[in-house]
Amino acid sequence: EDKVVQSPLSLVVHEGDTVTLNCSYEVTNFRSLLWYKQEKKAPTFLFMLTSSGIEKKSGRLSSILDKKELSSILNITATQTGDSAIYLCALTQGGSEKLVFGKGTKLTVNP
Amino acid sequence: GAGVSQSPSNKVTEKGKDVELRCDPISGHTALYWYRQSLGQGLEFLIYFQGNSAPDKSGLPSDRFSAERTGGSVSTLTIQRTQQEDSAVYLCASSLDLNQPQHFGDGTRLSIL
Q1: Do A98 and B98 touch (CB under 8 A)?
Q2: Measuring CA to CA, which residue among A82, A79, A34, A39 is closest to residue A61?
Q3: CA A53 and chain centroid, separation
């Protein structure tokens, strides 16, 4: 059965720390991997990765895909309390438009 | 507004009633998706539209669920004869085209009493 596994399930850090969130997958016909941030309501799009080894960066957030290891990481440097959220990993497969989601990592950043 | 708009934001109804949830996608987005987020279940795909047609309805959990999209824009998700297990947050997303990032609305929180 296809699956997306995120780790850790939850993480508590102090402001200023750097965190690394993991997403691994076992799917047939992988096409793309996406990261979302969900605070109270709508998941907000962060990154879409299709090629292995190419880092995508936006401010303090960055992400990279490793197709050999079937995984991706999301890094957040110099964390702030506003980074507290659930981070969701999702992927798409060839021939399908649906997103298949992991259960998410709940990040709490304490002041 | 610039984002995906969903209404109502909250809906409480009695078991056995029908409900309609509405989604207004980002202007110009051709693809529209419905997902359901339940406690402990994560986000589950229900159906997607490209234009007015629905190539993939595989996620609809039963024949009580249906969706339509008219004019390539607004979509409604209808649940007939609601059951308590239908309680969830129903999220709509849209994308500029296929294989593009999906952008989500705030969802409709549905509670079945």
Answers
A1: no
A2: A79
A3: 15
AA identity, residue A93: Q
Class of residue A6 by CB neighbours under 10 A (exposed 0-12, middle 13-18, buried 19+) = buried
The pLDDT value recorded for residue B54 is 87
Q: Do A34 and B101 touch (CB under 8 A)?
A: yes
Q: Tell me the mean pLDDT per 10 residues along chain B, length 113.
A: 90 97 96 92 92 90 94 94 96 94 96 95
Q: Cβ distance B94 to B2 under 8 Å?
A: no
Nearest to B33 by CA among A30, A90, A87: A90
CB nearest to A45's CB, from B58, B99, B103: B103
Give me the amino acid identity at A47: F
pLDDT of B15 reads: 96
With left for phi above 0 and alpha for psi between -120 and 50, is residue B46 left, alpha or beta? alpha
Task: List pLDDT tens digits, range A79-98.
Answer: 999 999 999 999 999 988 99
- Would you call B31 and A42 a contact, using CB atoms and an 8 Å cutoff? no
**Residue A13 β-bridge partners:** A109
Q: Output phi, psi for A81, to 5 deg.
A: -60, -30
Residue B93 tokens read as 């997303």
Mutation for B interface: A97, A103, A105, A106, most B CBs within 10 A: A97
Burial A25-52 (b: 16+ CB within 10 A, else e): bebeebebbbbbbbeeebbebbbbbeee
